[in-house]
Amino acid sequence: MEREKKEHAIVRFYGRLLSGMAALFAEIGELTILAGQVLYWLVRPPYRGRVFLESMYFVGVGTIFIVFLVGSFTGAVFALQSIIGLEMFGAENMVGGLVGYAFATEMAPVFTALLLTARAGSAMATELGTMRVTDQIDALATMGISPTQYLVTPRVFACTVMAPVLCMLFNFLGIGGGYVICIIIRDLDPGVFQDTISYWVDPEDITSGLIKVTVLGFFVSLIACRRGFFATGGAAGVGQATTKAVVHGFVVIFILDYFLTSLLQA
Questions:
Q1: Is the pLDDT of residue 233 over 60?
Q2: Are residues 159 and 120 in contact, defined by beta-carbon separation less than 8 angstroms?
Q3: Per-residue pLDDT at 75 exceeds 80
Q4: 44 within a domain of the structure (yes/no)
Q5: How many other C-beta atoms lie within 10 A of the C-beta of residue 13?
């Protein structure tokens, strides 16, 4: 009897494992298909410039305020913690280069992608999910308009294009927050702060951060649109789609960040 229970437990375990792997590969396949459709409709007429501009305004301008808050205070906190640590070795004058390098290569791209997922990605999933459950997407298809071209492509394009712009803003604000803490609060030398940034941070570091955030912006917007576009189950389904869009976006950001960092460093 106990042996049969163990065998059933093993079968259930492997069954769940295989079903989870199948669901993962199915998700990757659906995302790949959607990405191909987005790239296809991006270069095929009709070109709706106004829809693209509205999406870029929503993603870019609508996210500036939260980027301002998070970027400034992240830079301030990081600089303060760095000073405390570097003072133990008498190297507090190097904090400017440390802040600049950390933000250019890692913190600004990742935090920008997280903010885009939390604000723009959740909104995309909610909007498309609501349109799906209220049959608005089916109505577009009935009128001969491609829902992927009209709804998904502008959002993915806007997030991909505006991500590096917001990342540069996050860089500037993060270094500015660190500058306030180091120069005004801790009374470090402003010339040394700026010189260490120019010494530590190369143009290649900034370029690698922009490449990273562009790729992350594309994937998080694609995940959000895919979740909303295929939402089912009414209002509850829309809520679940939004939650999955944000959670999956966060997970993908950190996974892709590792592989992109390894690739760019290599």
A1: yes
A2: yes
A3: yes
A4: no
A5: 10
| Residue given tokens 């690698």 in the structure block | 208
Residue 35 lies in a domain: no
Residues 261 and 249: their CA atoms lie apart, in Å, by 18
- The answer to whether the CB of 97 falls within 8 A of the CB of 202 is no
32 belongs to a structural domain? no
The band of 28, judged by pLDDT with boundaries at 50, 70 and 90, is confident
The pTM is what? 0.89
Confidence of residue 30 (pLDDT cuts 50, 70, 90): confident
The tokens for 28 are 């990757």
- Asked if the model's pLDDT at residue 70 lies above 90, the reply is yes
How many domains are there within the chain?
A: 1
- Of 36 and 109, more confident: 109
The reply to whether 215 falls in a domain is yes
In the chain, which residue ranges form alpha helices assigned H by DSSP? 2-42, 49-60, 64-86, 95-102, 108-116, 122-133, 136-142, 147, 153-179, 190-200, 203-229, 234-265
Structural domain of residue 127, as residue ranges?
A: 49-265
3-state SS track over 163-179: HHHHHHHHHHHHHHHHH
For residue 114, which of 20, 199, 220 has the smallest C-alpha distance? 220
Alpha carbon distance 115, 163 (integer Å) = 10
